[in-house]
């Protein structure tokens, strides 16, 4: 399989036929200028060393050199074979609340976008650790299975919004249970769950779910997003209201989140404006015993551009050595 890392340079190949057309036009006008001095055959006899064919030969060599130079410039690569490699790290499942309350603007631009930005920053710092993502509101599902493909993790993260889960609510317990089920079969002890939410649980018993995780050797950490005084929730161009017409104010429920972290053997961190809370939690997770994981990845491509540059250089040298005049024949 051949891959071009900078394929946009291939458009330069369109210049190759232009070289021949331009040279043909130039020769045509040169012949017309020669005709002004007299008969072309007679003028040709006056210039016996001039070769009419070597110009085309030199142009062909130059065009070939340009062709190989452009191919080299486009960085042809071969490889892309699947191979299995072993890595050492921990598995982290992040449960991200995408309920409407996460649109409150006590963070800039809002709670959800601030959380996504922090997760993306965390992903940039990971090396061999595996990360997965669960989104939840009234229900939960796996947005991204545990992986070391950090580029895919950021791509899936960017697509998350409050419509990612069709059922509104905040089922914290179900989110933790979904994370428990999402760890790979290879992981036994180096597992952690990070729940990012405002803590307003309306559905189930998250403390019991966290306790179950702890019994399985999984630590549960919580990050509280929001403020104790609360903020209204933007909704469809206005503010979200309850059935009685009152504006809904979303407040951070720190007690619930502390209880979850305590039952899960982890820690609770309140998200700040500058330090969101993920970094100290991950530093704590890094102290856990790392495990060996096998991972199927693509081999890196082997660069081939240098060979094409070498061919182009060789053709240019030959083109310069040919010259434009006929080879003189010496009679002995």
> Can you give the mean pLDDT?
84
Shape: elongated
Strand order of the largest sheet: 6-5-4-7-8-13
Question: How much strand?
Answer: 15-25%
Describe the protein.
- This protein is of the alpha/beta class and 332 residues long.
- The protein is 39% helix and 22% strand.
- The chain contains ten helices and 15 strands.
- It has helices at 15-35, 40-46, 54-73, 111-125, 150-158, 172-182, 206-215, 254-263, 278-286, 305-322, and strands at 2-4, 76-78, 82-89, 91-97, 130-136, 140-147, 191-197, 218-224, 231-232, 234-235, 238-239, 249-250, 265-270, 291-298, 302-303.
- The strands form five sheets. The chain has a six-stranded mixed β-sheet with strand order 6-5-4-7-8-13, sandwiched between helices. It has a three-stranded antiparallel β-sheet with strand order 1-2-15.
- Helix 1 runs antiparallel to helix 3 (54-73) and helix 4 runs antiparallel to helix 5 (150-158).
- The longest helix is centred in the first third of the chain and has 21 residues, at 15-35.
- The chain is elongated, with a radius of gyration of 34 Å.
- The two termini are 58 Å apart.
């Amino acid at each position: 399989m051949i891959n071009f890392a900078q394929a946009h340079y291939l458009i330069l190949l369109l210049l190759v036929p232009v070289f021949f057309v331009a040279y043909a036009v130039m020769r045509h006008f040169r012949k017309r200028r020669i005709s002004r001095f007299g008969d072309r055959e007679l003028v040709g006899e006056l210039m016996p060393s001039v070769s009419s064919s070597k110009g085309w030969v030199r142009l062909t060599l130059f065009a070939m050199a340009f062709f190989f130079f452009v191919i080299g410039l486009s960085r042809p690569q071969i490889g892309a074979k699947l191979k299995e490699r072993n890595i050492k790290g921990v598995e982290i499942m992040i449960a991200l609340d995408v309920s409407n309350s996460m649109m409150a603007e006590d963070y800039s631009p809002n709670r959800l976008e601030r959380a996504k930005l922090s997760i993306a920053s965390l992903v940039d710092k990971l090396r061999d650790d595996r990360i997965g993502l669960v989104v939840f509101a009234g229900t939960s599902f796996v947005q991204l299975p545990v992986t070391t493909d950090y580029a895919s993790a950021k791509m899936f993260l960017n697509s998350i919004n409050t419509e990612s889960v069709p059922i509104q609510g905040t089922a914290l317990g179900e989110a933790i249970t979904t994370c428990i089920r999402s760890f790979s079969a290879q992981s036994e002890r180096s597992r952690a769950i990070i729940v990012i939410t405002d803590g307003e649980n309306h559905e189930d018993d998250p403390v019991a779910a966290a306790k179950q995780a702890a019994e399985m050797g999984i630590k549960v950490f919580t990050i509280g997003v929001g403020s104790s005084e609360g903020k209204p929730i933007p909704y469809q161009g206005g503010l979200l209201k309850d059935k009685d017409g009152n504006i809904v104010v979303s407040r951070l429920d720190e007690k619930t989140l502390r209880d979850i972290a305590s039952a899960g053997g982890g820690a609770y961190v309140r998200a700040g404006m500058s330090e969101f809370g993920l970094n100290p939690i991950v530093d704590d997770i890094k102290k856990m015993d790392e495990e060996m994981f096998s991972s199927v990845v693509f081999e890196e491509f082997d660069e081939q551009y240098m060979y094409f540059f070498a061919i182009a250089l060789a053709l240019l040298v030959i083109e310069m050595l040919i010259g434009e005049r006929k080879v003189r024949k010496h009679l002995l």
